Amino acid sequence: MRDYDSVEYYQSREEKERALAAAALDPKIAAIHLDMAERYAAIIMRSALPRAANHGEP
Predict the structure, then answer these.
(1) Would the pTM count as exceeding 0.90?
(2) What's the first-to-final CA gap in the chain, in angstroms?
(3) 48 located within any domain
(4) Domain assignment of residue 44, yes or no
(5) For residue 18, which of 44, 42, 36, 3 has the smallest C-alpha distance?
(6) Which residue range is the domain that position 22 belongs to?
(7) Do residues 17 and 36 lie in contact, with contact meaning Cβ atoms separated by under 8 Å?
(8) Average pLDDT of 3-10?
(9) Higher pLDDT, 53 or 38
(10) How many domains does the chain have?
């Protein structure tokens, strides 16, 4: 399995982007990192939906 096929990969990337945003001195750079974190979060949510439907989870 490739790293980017794993939810854990995207969770790790989201955490790293949020940390980079928090450390950024330039608000524009922080915003870019937050945008990337949100994109990773969206990927995680999309990947969780089919699993939840298959297991009867909300």
Answers:
(1) no
(2) 27
(3) yes
(4) yes
(5) 36
(6) 8-55
(7) yes
(8) 84
(9) 38
(10) 1
